[in-house]
Amino acid sequence: MENMAYLQMQEISKSFGGTQALREVNFSATLGEVHAIVGENGAGKSTLMNILAGALLPDTGETLIAGKMVKLDTPHQAFNLGIRTVYQEFSLIPHLTVTENILLGQMPASKMKWWVDWAGAYRRAEEIFQELNFTDINVRTPVSHLSVSHQQMVEIAKALAQKPSILVLDEPSAVLSAKELDRLFALMQKLKREATLILYISHRLDEVFKVADRITVLRDGELVGTVNTPETDQRQLIKMMVGRTVDEIYPHRHTQPGEIILTVKELRREGAFTDISFSLARGEILGLFGLVGSGRTEVARSIFSAEPPTAGEIRLAGEVIRSKSPYAALNAGIALLTEDRKQDGLVMSCSIRDNAGLATMPQVSRWGFLNRRQQDTQVQSKVEELHIRPAKIPIGQLVRTLSGGNQQKVVLAKWLLSQAKVLILDEPTRGVDVGAKVDIYHIINDMAARGVGILFISSELPEILGMSDRILVMREGRLVGEFNRTQASEEKLLACAAGVAE
Amino acid sequence: MKIGKDLRRRWADYGFMLAFIVLILIASSAANVFFTQRNFSNVSSQIVANGLISLGMLIVILTGGIDLSVGPVVALTGIMAAGFQEHIYLPLAVMGALLVGLLAGVINGFLVARLKLQPFIATLATMSMYRGAVYVYSEIPITPSNPAFRAHLGGAFFGPIPVLVIIMLICYPLAWVFLNRTTFGRATVAIGGNEKAVRLAGINVAGHITLAYIICSFFASIAGILVASRIGYAQPSVGAGYELDAIAAVVIGGGILGGGGGSVVGTLGGVLLLGLINNLLNLFNVQSYYQQIFKGLIIVIAVLARRKQQ
Questions:
Q1: Which of A242, A273, A294 is the last residue of a domain?
Q2: pLDDT (tens digit, 9 = 90+) per residue, A212-236?
Q3: A268 shares a domain with A232
Q4: Where are the beta strands (DSSP E) in B2-42?
């Protein structure tokens, strides 16, 4: 870090309509460092990175690379300057092969110009993967045949195909398993040694502490500060992010679980999980932990009949449920908040009202006719309870216009309105900032206090430890452990989930 | 300030209204037959068929689908109503024809919702089947012997207004209420936005999609009977290209193929705009081939204006 700043972004401001997304931000970073950028949703991280990628023009301010002012008016100019961005949303073309995706626009041609040199292309792609140590991806398969985490690796390989000088990784860990994440971190170390500047955007502070040399915090469009990782801790960082200390992230709770409400016996679905048995009591929050691919999401979806199980028994309040569709499961009293809000949770083209009220229309209608006043009152009360911002937001507004955290709250509102006896929450705080997380934790606790049985799935250890009364651990489609709140620790859960003896 | 904001957000809508007024002004100043009651009832009768079919098309498009088979359904129900009335009491004949139309919708819905065929492919297939069925029933036009077939529907007036216009004007508010105030309608709109999310909200998606195709066929059936009764006889060849006019009206009115956009009011605007322009070009004796060129241009301009708005 002795060398001069390679990238300097000076006095960058940007506003959208009336809101100031960035305010005179001065950001700099050097080659050969991993520089993390953290902040709550809407703090301006993505805006800043989009300006760097040439996807957005700043209102004021300039960017210098190696001390020289550069023009970043189009993504193409950024590309030519060696800036590559790996976005959260994939830019891969599903039905083309891995090779074509990586070499898009630069496929090698044979001597006769207009034929593609396929052998050469595959060779080149394999070389790239070998260098990155991602050897388990077959470069001839169409991208659509790959798992999401492998697609993420292809996306990264695509960015690295021609040695960029600046690599921006926007939440790369969201879809990666622990093993793949380790490989990504190893790769980042290698790139660092080769003097690449890596800008790492993440919500997960533990990750940031693991990989970053320096951390820059943004809040409400302003740069709060840049700190050297060894000289700070999570508490300080959270304070910088939210502008206040969050002493009590996980609220205290004194509930006595009541009688058993949900019993799952020897549940199995071919190729996903087997021999799952557990029970859940009224008012209990039962954590379900496992690494990506452990089968926890699949179990949740099976209990809700989104993909019905092939064998086993589900009892709700003692009665066997034989539902074959989410429609039947919801009628029986089971609700599921899905992990992927864009794919499975929200109708982006519809309003807050339509989305929040989607699962509960029968409650507020007669003969199929909606009582709009009643629906509005219900939705409005949840919007307020969940602090969906800005305050007094009209519920006719399209959810597409909301920030990620507020969108997640709309999904939550949908299921809070349902009078389900069992609520399955699959990653309920994914992509949500710290302040909103605390709101959501309080709401979940309220639900439990009202006697709802809650199955709480999360891949964030502090969260699952802070919220659950009991924790089940899954590995490779099986239940491999059960812990009480008092016995559990991060180390124990992780060791159990990864199959490592302590 | 607020008005300014509203104007910016909805300038495409105001643009359409302005286009209407300009067109009507041009029409009334240039062709003095335009403001006659005769022309008025002519235009309105002409747009009734497209008006009804577009409503059904809107509902299907809102689910993310499309229905190419509406043209043959128009022909099928018209010719069956005309044929049936030779054998049975006229209202029963009309009901019978409507039932056949409903059946066509059930088949479309089954193919799309249960067998999971792509809507374009499924209705392309049934489009061919239903057209074949029309000719199997009758290769030649059928002229009903019962004068009531024309007198009580297509030729009837309520005061100065043709009865078929009234039928269409009743259907529009009904469709609005259906889409905005019923659980079925709200779910239908949501399906086009994100089918998966709607299924996981515990809603019977296949049932809703099936119903959308049934409603679409039903509107086409009403149109079929009205068209036949307005001309006074049923032609087996009628309805060619009707699906395209209906899709055009929905899209001009802000509809998005693939779902996620479209409204009853916008669709009515699209229907009226297309109808008005057809009428004007007719009054000015413009060759019908030019009319087709015009129609295409309007679709392109309308869609571009909408996109700019977003």
A1: A242
A2: 999 999 887 889 999 999 998 887 8
A3: no
A4: none
